[in-house]
Every structure is written in C-alpha cells, then in structure tokens.
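Can't attach files on this board, so I'm pasting raw text. These are the components:
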Amino acid sequence: MDRVSVVTDIRQANQNAAHENRKVFDKCGSCVINLMSAPGAGKTSVLEATIREIAPSFKVAVIEGDLETTFDSDRIRAMGVPAHQITTGSVCHLDARMVAKALAVFPPDGADLVVIENVGNLVCPAEFNLGEDLRVMVFSVVEGADKPKKYPLMFHTSDVVLLNKIDLLPYSGVALSELLRNVVEVNPRAAIFPISCRTGEGMEGWIGWLTQELKTRSRQALSTLKT
Amino acid sequence: MDRVSVVTDIRQANQNAAHENRKVFDKCGSCVINLMSAPGAGKTSVLEATIREIAPSFKVAVIEGDLETTFDSDRIRAMGVPAHQITTGSVCHLDARMVAKALAVFPPDGADLVVIENVGNLVCPAEFNLGEDLRVMVFSVVEGADKPKKYPLMFHTSDVVLLNKIDLLPYSGVALSELLRNVVEVNPRAAIFPISCRTGEGMEGWIGWLTQELKTRSRQALSTLKT
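---
Top answer:
Structure tokens for the assembled complex are below.
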C-alpha cells in the first residue's frame, strides 16, 4: 500500500464519517461551525466573546479539540455552556471519526449552534471535513500579512475569516491593508471581519453576521418541516 | 495495513533518511539547526537577525521549507546567503527525505552552520528528525502562556526556545513569568531566551550561546580530525 492510496483511504473514511455526523446535526437542527486557526490566534477567546453575545438568544454547545489538557472546555463550561473535550494525543487535527465518538456521548440535542474548536494548526485541520455547515477561521494579525499566500488552504476553504488582535496592529509593523488584500486574493468569497476580542473592536460585525446566519437557517429548517 | 503500522513505517523510513543526511552533514563539517515554530512566530526574521550577527565569523547556508511561495528563500538570498527552497505543497512539515533531495542539489560544502527552516506548524515538524544537531524553536509570546502545556512535544524536544515578540508583551495581556514557568515545566533542560528580533532586545544572549556552540563544535571536529 503506497502513500497515495493510504491518504486516499484516510480521506474517504473521513468523508463517510463526516456524512454520518451531518445526519446527526441535521436531526438535532443544529448549525455547526468548525473553528480553526494556528495556535494562540485566539479561537477560545473569540468563542467566549461570541457566546457572551449570542447565548441569550441561541442555545450553544461546544466540542473542544486539543492535543493535551482540558483548559479550553473548562473555560467554556465556566460560562454555563455545555462543552466536551476531545484530546487527540499527538494528532494535529480533528477528524470526523473523533467528532462521531464525541457525539455518541455528547449529543447536541436542541443546540441551535454547535461550535467545534479544532486543534491549533494553520495547515492540517483544513483537510478534514467534520460535517460542519460553516468554516470559521481566526487569524492573528501579528502573524504577518504574507500568511494567506504561504498557508492558502485554510483561508481558501473558510466561509468567515476573523482577523483577530487588531489592537496590536500599531505595535506589530503589520499592514492591515496588505493582509486584507492577500486574504481576498486567496478567497474572494469569504466574509472578513477585523476584530479584537480583547477590546471588543469589530465584534459587532461578526456577531451580526452570525446572528443573521442562525436566524436564516432556523427559518429554513422550519419551512422544511412544514413542507 | 492498519494505521499504526503505516505510521511506524513512515517513522522508520524517516529515521533511515535522517541517518543518511547526518552522514552528509558530518562530511561537510556543518552544525545543523532545525528551526521550528507556529506560522508567523518570526522564524525567518529571527534567522535574518541571527545571520546579520554571525555571518562575519561563520559561513551559513539555509534550507527553507514552505507549503507555497519562495518568499523566505528570496529574503535569505537577498542577504547574500545561499538558500534553497523546498515547497511541500500540502504537506505540513519537512521530513528527512525532502531534506535529502535538497542536499543532492544544494550540498552544504564548507558551511559552518546549516539552518533548515521548517514549515510553520507547532505540532507535526517536531515528530520528524531531519538529521539535525540542534532543535531551535521560536515561540511568539502573544500566542499565550498556556501553549507549552497544550502543545508540549515541540517545547519538549527543543534544545533552545526563543520567546519572540517580547516588545508586544505590554499590550498583549500575556505574563512572561507564567510562560517561562510553563516552558521550564515541559522542558527543564532547554536554553530559553526572551527576545524581540524587531527591536533587538535579548538577541545578544541567543547569539552568544550560538557562537559558543559553533566554536565548541568546530574545535571538537578539529580534534577528531587530528586523532
């Protein structure tokens, strides 16, 4: 068995599992976000800030993926939101089978929004469909304006790009205009929001977009039920 | 062939290739650094600042690893230092066989120091021995103090940890003392240097360490030749 056929087998198995996850999510009527980024770009902080805004109107559940520790699921549960931790050991991304195992013990019944926070890695997570509706990536602006071109796949496959830590722009030497240009070049269809989840700057745009998306999906689900 | 045996085969093939690379480096008398970090932590900028300091005394050659683009090797060549670019396509790390192919067309004859700059990824590169003498990792302090515990392998296997972007500490909310404590907990034997390659702060400690290391290795190589 050569490397190509091994990779093909792994991808096919993942697609099959993602398809099964999709059925579970559809049955629960949940909108599912695969939240991705490099380590330390601020996924969990963005998620906390997002939950604070939308939790009064929508029911949220979170699946956390990390190599080690339960730091992130502890943070989410401390907000009163149900969270399940997947620890991957040495595996640098979540795959659909890991999520399937999580769903078996942590079914998202009644959750309007399920957020799956992936392992921090700007490369591999983008290759694995988990059965999500939306891919949302967080990129820390201090990582540099050239990164969309150097690590194109995650940028290319994301529905939303949150450019986080803009409060550090004045001290970082990174030009937001150049970064925006490179994101658009790699993915012209993404919704892009420059934000700082620490200061709250720009968060209203992202929260507005997400709220609209959840309402639209909820109306669509309702009309599907009626027909 | 199951997943475990595939992984074992890949690792063994990598070890064999790393062993062959080691022979090439030994023959050339080069000290070899595997330079690793998450994307945007500042590997190339640290490398540029390091080359500026040590190039007058030591001959340097660089092998760059990226998914896409030749941005990094262009930057190094612009300094008058020979550089070879490996583009991995979708592969999220360098492996020893990629380096072997590079060495076939880019032999490091006469280089005192060969730096192999890995793909930006805080997870996978640490699993692949390239035949290096030293593992040096760059960590951007704004990525957060908890990361050594969440992504322990690279911290654990590095000889040197460069904590970069300390000029952003006052604006980031990250406590350097907590970060240092977590690095030491994961790897008590690493040499740790808090630096800013943008302002130059702390660089003299790292440059002093590296210079000493290169001199010692060069003396050892000389005495081996004599005996």
